[in-house]
Amino acid sequence: LDGNFCTTPYTFTGGQDNLPWTIKDGWLIENHSPTVTLGTNNTIVSSINAGTFGYTVWSVPVQVNTNPVLLKTANLQMIGSTPAGAIVNIKIFIDGVEKGNIPALTVVNGSNYASFDFTSNPINLAVGSHTIDVHADIISGANTNFQFLLQQSSDIVITDLDGDQRFLKKA
Q1: Scanning 45, 67, 69, 76, which has the fewest C-beta atoms within 10 Å of its C-beta?
Q2: Pairing mode, if any, of strands 35-38 and 128-138?
Q3: How far does Cα 13 stand from its chain's mean position?
Q4: For 102-124, what is each residue's pLDDT tens digit?
Q5: DSSP string, 60-128
Q6: Which pLDDT does position 72 carry in this prediction?
Q7: Are the C-beta atoms of residues 171 and 81 closer than 8 Å to each other?
Q8: Residue 74 has pLDDT above 70, yes or no
Q9: Of the given ranges (29-33, 39-43, 128-132, 138-142), which has the lowest mean pLDDT?
């Protein structure tokens, strides 16, 4: 090895690479890093009364290209006049399948968040199109409004399968 190059040619069917790149687990073929595109954040502005269960409070399309990736965290901020205690039983779905839930919003620096942490058991997103939805039960309040937002790119962590490189771009 000479830096990130192998000094021995790599021979394959149909040719030879005289100066291939290498990585810790073998050969790295150029431009095969995953790409992830987070579509338009479909924030759902809601004015809803108590007694609504399983309501979709947030939804976003996700496109994964080249290689699968891992979803490790998602932190959605709730803004609006609805009290935090009115929204409970918050669940995250990937392609219609429940992947996690939290009982209630948490307060971080004075703001209300639905925070999902999958770092101990990341969610594998295969190459292709996906939809991430968040549903919740509205248990109190009348004629108040709210919406959930990803405020910054660090609010969602998606990495390669080794977990050491983040991938995300907004459409």
Answers
A1: 45
A2: unpaired
A3: 38
A4: 999 998 888 999 999 999 999 99
A5: EEEEEESS-EEEEEEEEEEEESS-GGGEEEEEEEETTEEEEEEEE-EEETTEEEEEEE-TTSPEEE-SE
A6: 93
A7: no
A8: yes
A9: 29-33
1 — pLDDT class (breaks 50, 70, 90): very low
Q: Region of 18 please: left (phi>0), alpha (psi -120 to 50) or beta.
A: alpha
Position of tokens 């990585």?
23
Residue 166 contacts residue 159 (beta carbons within 8 Å)? yes
Confidence (pLDDT) at 32: 63
The size of the chain, in residues, is: 171
Tell which residue, 57, 64, 62, has the closest CA to residue 79: 57
Q: What is the dihedral of CA 126, 130, 132, 133, to 10 degrees?
A: -140
The bridge status of strand 169-170 relative to strand 35-38 is parallel
Distance between CA atoms of 93 and 169, rounded to whole angstroms? Answer: 21
Q: Which residues of 58-91 are buried (b: 16+ CB within 10 A; e: fewer)?
A: bbbebbbeeeebbbbebbbbbeeebebebbbebb
